[in-house]
Design goal:
The chain is an alpha/beta fold and about 300 residues long. It has two domains: about 1-100 and about 290-310, Rossmann fold, CATH 3.40.50.720; about 105-280, NAD(P)-binding Rossmann-like Domain (Rossmann fold, 3-Layer(aba) Sandwich). It is built from eleven helices and twelve strands. The strands form two sheets. Strands 8-7-6-9-10-11-12 form a seven-stranded parallel beta sheet. It has a five-stranded parallel beta sheet with strand order 2-1-3-4-5. α3 runs parallel beside α4 (about 60-70), α4 (about 60-70) runs parallel beside α5 (about 85-95) and α6 (about 105-120) packs across α8. The protein starts with a strand and ends with a helix.
Length: about 300
């Protein structure tokens, strides 16, 4: 049995998991992956494997079809987001594919709240300036009584809300599937985009779908409070970056913290790089030792359960 792993966080700690594959008599393939492999690379690799633990790679119809024409019998999408996987094609091909939800709510929420604080007090800018030999004193804003709007009120969104409330912020949530949660009774549900103009901080924590691609665009940005601080820990394509650059230039958006971008890694010529108050991540919000172990062990268990079920 051959298993392919293309998820960078899991690959970064792969030696921790080798024994689990050895115990199942599986041969492990661990390619070098910065963020994702290309369709062409996947079409070469995937068909030679019985199982695949997917990162953010384009697991599209073309790749999955090549896989099932070869040896591929089951796959697990490591993590929560599944917008890169063509589940309709997988179902058509009779290929079982699952993901690993509820693994990273606290970890991604920690990063999101760190970004909120970083944008409020410009701590990342201060760090860069001090390293450059300067001693800046930018004026920040307090978090108490500020309004934090969260798009997506699932596991991650609820954990972000808990952290905002702990900072004495007021929280509103946009989610058509909103469900009240214990300890979060003060969170106010809103219908998008009602209430967007009240938000001091807007945090994206939802799945990417065909319907919400470029949810943040020129029109929605015009309706926000002047000086909005924007955080994205979800998917890059939720934001129209051309519109964001324009809003940053006008001051409509004071600054943005982007753990994810439309093109990853962020291109050297991206105009977003011009805005010093912005914070950039590397699509790394869930990557803690603890969370990677938890999600990887679960992914391995799910994959082998599916493969055993096909014997």
């Amino acid at each position: 049995m051959k298993i392919l792993v293309t998820c960078p966080p899991m690959l970064g700690q792969i030696d921790r998991f080798r024994s689990a594959f050895d115990q199942c008599g599986a041969e492990l393939t661990c390619p070098s992956v910065v963020q994702t492999l290309s369709v062409a690379e996947l079409k070469e690799l995937v068909p030679a494997h019985d199982g695949w633990i997917i990162g953010d790679d384009p697991a599209n119809r073309e790749v999955l079809q090549a896989g099932v024409r070869g040896r591929l019998k089951a796959a697990v999408k490591w993590g929560i987001g599944v917008d890169n996987v063509d589940f309709a094609a997988a179902k058509e091909f009779g290929l079982p594919v699952v993901n690993t939800p509820f693994m990273f709510g606290r970890e991604v929420a920690d990063i999101a709240m760190g970004y909120v604080i970083g944008l409020a007090r410009q701590t990342f800018l201060i760090d860069r300036e001090v390293r450059a030999g300067r001693w800046p004193k930018p004026v920040g804003i307090s978090l108490g009584d500020k309004i934090g709007a969260i798009v997506g009120f699932g596991d991650i969104g609820r954990n972000i809300a808990r952290r905002m409330l702990a900072a004495d912020m007021k929280v509103i949530a946009f989610d058509p599937m909103f469900k009240p949660a214990q300890g979060l009774e003060s969170v106010v549900r809103r219908e998008w985009p009602d209430g967007l103009a009240d938000a001091d901080f807007l945090v994206l924590a939802c799945n990417l779908t065909a319907a919400n691609r470029h949810l943040i665009n020129a029109e929605t940005l015009k309706s926000t409070k002047f000086g909005l601080r924007l955080v994205n820990v979800a998917r890059g394509h939720l934001i129209d970056e051309v519109a964001l650059v324009d809003a940053l230039g006008r001051g409509q958006v004071h600054s943005a913290a982007l753990d994810v971008m439309e093109v990853e890694p962020l291109p050297q010529n991206s105009p977003l790089r011009r805005y010093d108050r912005c914070i950039f991540g590397a699509h790394n919000g869930s990557n803690t030792i603890d969370a990677v172990i938890r999600a990887s062990e679960h992914a391995i268990e799910l994959l082998f359960d599916m493969l055993k079920g096909q014997k």
